[in-house]
Amino acid sequence: MKFEELGLDDTLLEALSYMGFEEATPIQEKAIPPILEGNDIIACAQTGTGKTAAFLLPVLSLLAHSEKNHTSTLIIAPTRELALQIEQQVQGLAYFAGVDSLALYGGGDGIEWSQQKRALEKGTDIIVATPGKLISHLNMNNGDFSKVKFLILDEADRMLDIGFHDDILKILSFLPKERQTLMFSATMPKKIREFAKKILKTPTTEITIAVSKPAKGVLQAAYLVNDEHKIELVSNLLKDKPNYESIIIFCSTKQMVSKLARTLKKKNYSVEEISSSLEQKKREEVLLRFRAKHTRIMVGTDVVSRGIDIKGINLVINFDVPGDAEDYVHRIGRTARADSTGVALTFVNQDDMYKFQQIERLIETEVMKLKIPKPIGESPEWKPNASLKKKRRKGSKHRNKPSHHKNKKRTKKN
């Protein structure tokens, strides 16, 4: 469906035309009309489906000819990176609608805090914020949120996963009850539905788009590899892919991110690392260089798995199997965006085989298994049930451990 068929304001249609967008994605096609009609919505759509524009376009359309001397829209996101990205999209579209915006996130200094305070007191139209930073300003009575018309929660499942449930409820206490609430989530577990009942009003439109399915353009494969061979396998894969300009490697720990990045730098690869250990400004600089293709390889934790819009990723490597099956979808969703193609490779050791099998069940796809090259070493056999039994034995051993051992340890320490 074309955007001009969705009832958007002419100023937004002009912006979309200028930017070269004509066709709406499925989530945009389903979400924009009910938002324009004033309904609350709960929408489930994975990264890369155009969900940010699905809520920004109708809200900006409704704000285009409204009074603009107060904060009318509050968008809450779980991470600094996502908040910044959303605010950048707001700026790109809002220029045509005459709307201003501000991103609030942690990691700044006193000067930045003062600038944010002034912008809040001025009544900036659209505020994009992480929960913690927003609450800090609310506790200081910075800004007036009593006239907010639109509340948008992006990646609501992620916010609940990392413990923002009570923070969001506190934020809601500063907002008017008569508002339109838009809730977007990449997954729809029971806790999300229960939370939605607390904050959404009737009528509520529920939308589900492509839940937990990787993009069709992603070529997936899994290497069966022991941990001691993983770094050498990475080097071998990179050597064989000189034409791949943008590569992301996901590791499960910050320690492994640093170790792998150092190793690749010694081999003269253009590589940078990104994790929560970096200050916000440094993280933004790393992302900027990677987007601009100044850096070829980015090694990171899941801080870059969700909500970071980087086009043209050729290859995603999961150095470790992600702890959550949903995270696998978000990691490999960095490639094959906007109908392009890409490759996603996952390193699977013996302990992680059952976990990877659960991922295959979630995405309803059996991923091709590959053995590592002989010069590197031997691959473990694909035995996911053995992995499960090992995990159960560990758990059983832990549960049956006599409690008096702990008491003896404490006695010695005291």
Please count the beta strands (DSSP E, at least 2 residues each). Answer: 14
Biggest pleated sheet: 7 strands, parallel
- How would you name the CATH homologous superfamily of the largest domain? P-loop containing nucleotide triphosphate hydrolases
How far is it from the N-terminal to the C-terminal residue, by CA? 71 Å
The low-pLDDT segments are 398-414
What does the average pLDDT come to? Answer: 84
What would you say the CATH architecture of the largest domain is? 3-Layer(aba) Sandwich
CATH class of the largest domain: Alpha Beta
Overall number of structural domains: 2
Tell me roughly what share of residues is in helical segments.
40-55%
**How many distinct helices?**
16
Strand order of the largest sheet: 3-4-2-5-6-1-7
Provide the succession of SSEs: HHEHEHEHEHEHHEHEEHEHEHEEHEHEHH
* Alpha carbon gyration radius: 23 Å
CATH topology of the largest domain: Rossmann fold
Describe this structure in words.
42% of the residues are buried. The longest helix is centred in the first third of the chain and has 18 residues, at 80-97. The radius of gyration is 23 Å and the shape is globular. It folds into 2 domains: 3-209, 3-Layer(aba) Sandwich (Rossmann fold); 218-393, 3-Layer(aba) Sandwich (Rossmann fold). Strands 3-4-2-5-6-1-7 form a 7-stranded parallel beta sheet, sandwiched between helices. The N and C termini lie far apart (71 Å). It has 414 residues and is of the alpha/beta class. Residues 398-414 have low confidence and may be disordered. The protein has helices at residues 10-18, 26-36, 51-63, 80-97, 110-122, 131-139, 156-161, 165-172, 190-199, 230-239, 254-266, 280-291, 325-332, 353-363, 384-399, 404-413, and strands spanning 40-45, 73-76, 101-104, 126-129, 150-153, 180-185, 204-209, 218-224, 247-250, 271-274, 297-300, 315-318, 342-348, 368-371. Helix 13 (325-332) links the parallel strand 12 and strand 13 (342-348). The chain is built from 16 helices and 14 strands.
